[in-house]
Amino acid sequence: MIRNLFRATENLRSEMLTNAIALTHLLLDERTCLLRFVQRIVGNAANAEDVTQGLWLRIQRVDDHPPIENRKAYLYRLARNLALDHATADRRRAEVLAEAAELLLFSAEAVPDERSHIARDQLHHIAMTIAGLPERTQQIFALSRLEGLSQRDVADRLGISRPTVEKHLRYAFDAIMALRPDGP
Amino acid sequence: MNKNDGGNGPSIDEQARDWVLRLDSGDIERSDLEACKAWLASDARHRAAFERRRVLWQDLSMRPEIFSSPRAPRRSGRPRRIGRWLAARPRRTAGAAIAASLAAFFMIPQAMFWAAADYSSSAEILNVKLPDGSIATLDGASAISVDFGDGERRISLLRGNAFFDVRHGDPRPFRVAAGAGVTEDIGTRFEVRHAPDRTAVNVAQGAVRVSATAASASGLRLNAGESANYEGNGHVVKGRAVIAADVAAWRTGELLIDGASMGDAIAAVSRYRKGPTWVWADLSGTASVSGAFRTDRADDALKALVSEAGLGIRWLPGGVAIITAQRPF
User: Fold this and answer.
1) CA of A64 to nearest chain B CA: how many angstroms apart?
2) By three-state DSSP, how is residue B132 classified?
3) What is the pTM of this model?
4) What is the domain-level CATH number for residue A33?
5) Which domains does chain B have, with CATH numbers?
6) In this structure, are A56 and A118 located in the same domain?
7) Average pLDDT for chain B
8) Is B66 an 8 Å CB contact of chain A?
9) B207-233 pLDDT, tens per residue?
């Protein structure tokens, strides 16, 4: 097993296939986002790491034929399938969570969004708005957006109820949405 | 706009917001999911309101810099928020989870790079002539903003390291803000090194005054060959003596590492690499390192460090280097 992994690594340097190179780059770029996506499906960070590393190995074996039309969609689809394979205990629940995560991640065209829609000059206003929120709301918002925890995980971490977490997030979300030029 | 659907229930915008949060809850049933899809399909306005919130919500998770507000007055003198949250993260035992937080360690400094920067360098050293004739030399992967007004000549070191050769004869004080503190020139050449958790000042010639908070007027006076550092807690601590000629040795293409942790040493070398460097290994057990390297041969320096620590390295196209435990995964 270890020997095979080494061989896979060597291939990366010399004779890697076009699709595999492109997907590896994409995986590095998307790593944080992919990890969070997978974590929503499998439920915890350690399993999510396992799945993401399996994904890494899997894409090294992707052929150049046929060419992949949309590599990003392909990568997320592969991640979802590996995550569902991993979630054997409660597969139906994992399917619901995967579908919910995809609804949040993908636009109506079923393609993951490009990042960074927020204009750079808005970042400062958003940062100031967050800094002006109550401490508890800031903390919950950071656990959700910065660390990528689900509401349920935030609630467990802080020992409060999930609806309470949702209430804080709603408050923060409304405050930031109100900054947008196109209104709340 | 879509404030209300006509009735007394929640507006379309409020419903859209609540659906986004519900999808993100980690606690959703099949029936909720079907209800959400039906709501989205029933009216084009529903889909539009949902899309705007969904995209914003996703974006907010990709923008760690919104959790620090370096220019907000009420934050001065306090640790940067982002540092606090990351530090507060409980240590997880799974090696993979540690690797994830180490990777974040390299990514976040990039992301914290504010739109405010006037000058920034990538892998190479950059000399900047300031409006008063002073010279700022930026180390690799560093950034400053320049704000010269009637009362002062102010530089903010946003990221990385910079060396200042200050021109005299200008009555306005020359100040460098980094982290929570400020260094004021008293006729000199000096270096400021800004890491997320700590700022260090080394004086090559003349003297400076270092204050750990933007507000305090006093501070610690440093002469040539002296050094000091501060964190976010309002105290300046005098460091050990430095050899004046070695201050900011990176200006001449040399990188001196003296008893640094392996993580700091890798970060220092990575500054000069053209591609990103990732650490997927636990460095906590590795010994500290010392050495002299050439900044124009950063890949060789990285190889030397990694082999000394008994770690592995894999090179990917595009200059990506990934440092792993010797046994992959």
Assistant:
1) 17
2) coil
3) 0.50
4) 1.10.1740
5) 12-116 (no CATH), 120-244 (2.60.120.1440), 253-324 (3.55.50.30)
6) no
7) 75
8) yes
9) 898 988 765 556 888 988 889 988 877
